[in-house]
Amino acid sequence: MAARSIFLTLTRNVRGRERSLFRSFTTTTEVVYEDSPDSAVEEKDETVDDLKSRIFSVRLPKRSATNVLQRWVGEGRQVSISDLRHISKELQKSRRFKHALEISEWLVYHNQDEALDSDYATRIDLITKVFGIDSAERYFEGLPSTAKTTETYTALLHSYASLRLTEKAEDLYERMKEANLSLNTVTYNEMMTLYMSVGLLGKVPLIVEEMKLHKVSPDLFTYNLWVSSCAATLKIDEVRRILYEISLGSDYGEQWKRYINLVYIYITSGNLVNSGLNSVVECVKGITQREWISYDFLIILYGALGNKDKLDQIWKSLRMTNQKMSSRNYVCILSSYLMLGHMNEVGEIIDQWKLSAAADFDSSSGNRLLKAYKESGLEERAVACRLLLIQKGCDQIEEL
């Protein structure tokens, strides 16, 4: 993927899972079915005959999952709303959005009394993916007033933010406030993610102020966006102040502790210092230091969450861009794997760093990393990393 899309794509993925929002429903006339019920079902596994297996056997997007449901019901079988939600979610994970949309439509149309706000919200998200934002807007505006809740509004806000439609997102955000809706952490995070993705970093702290004014508690994603916006503009003193605020929180636990340590290690070993400038120097091929720092803070976030799979995904994505990376980028991913105790990956990163033509291996960066780990009270991790650096033939590694 292009380097500029990584931040938005990966943050969308995690927040989609963490929020409990996701979502929705559209009018039955918007989904077009191209084939007949008899032609909808492809060859099925003879040993398994449940609804999910039948739907997943329909692999071509042009074929209809609705026809599978019609046949299932025609055989006198029951369809539960919980099964439909589960199947729709699994289809989305497989990026089979059209079929997920058809399941979502059936769910709402045949279970209107049991449909939740999240069912309608899921539909808005899927309509955006399948038919585009104009169709999603029409669907949202056509909802009854009782269905225009924080969750459905936030679903449309998410669609705008995903497409970087800043003006529309801001207008909708104002509508939500005018409607006296009770905004939640996810709503505010959507706006912050949008501002980060379009480079309006100065607006991120304003959203945090609004959250606090309305007594909405920031979560780890909120703080990471806030810290990232400050670090990207080299407001390092503000980063340190925010870390102190986090440490005073009532829900301060292992993830928060890892997060504080990783941020401290990053700004220390990365040699980030305060700057009075609002913008920073462009890097090679048009990627700014701000953008690279934003990517680094995604790595820090998932390191704090202990999500190794996501760390692997981000690092692979960044390396595939063939963009010039600095020693700081290597130190960031290395420190996250080290924090979680994945020493094989730490060794692989050291090898990649040493072989990289884009970022010369700098022993001083390694020494700063070890010192930052020791100062954070993580001396065992520092010792293990030092031994690995020496084994990899890295010169001038200092004693701890």
Give your account of this protein's structure:
One of its GO terms (cellular component) is mitochondrion. GO terms for molecular function: mRNA binding. With 400 residues, the chain is an all-alpha fold. It has a domain at 219-400. Helix content is 65%, strand content 0%.
Report low-confidence residues grouped into runs of 5 or more.
14-45, 277-286
Q: How many separate helices?
A: 21
**Number of distinct beta strands:** 0
User: What is the share of helical residues?
Assistant: 55-70%
Coarse morphology? globular
Strand content: under 5%
Give the distance, in angstroms, between the N- and C-terminal Cα atoms: 40 Å
Mean pLDDT: 83
Biggest beta sheet attributes: none
Structural class estimated from helices and strands: mainly alpha
How large, in whole angstroms, is the Cα Rg? 24 Å
- Listing every helix as H and every strand as E from the N terminus to the C terminus, the arrangement reads HHHHHHHHHHHHHHHHHHHHH
How do the helices and strands line up, and which of them pair or pack?
Blueprint: H1 3-18, H2 37-40, H3 51-56, H4 65-74, H5 81-93, H6 97-110, H7 117-131, H8 133-141, H9 150-162, H10 166-178, H11 185-198, H12 204-213, H13 220-232, H14 236-247, H15 254-269, H16 289-305, H17 308-320, H18 327-339, H19 343-355, H20 363-375, H21 379-391
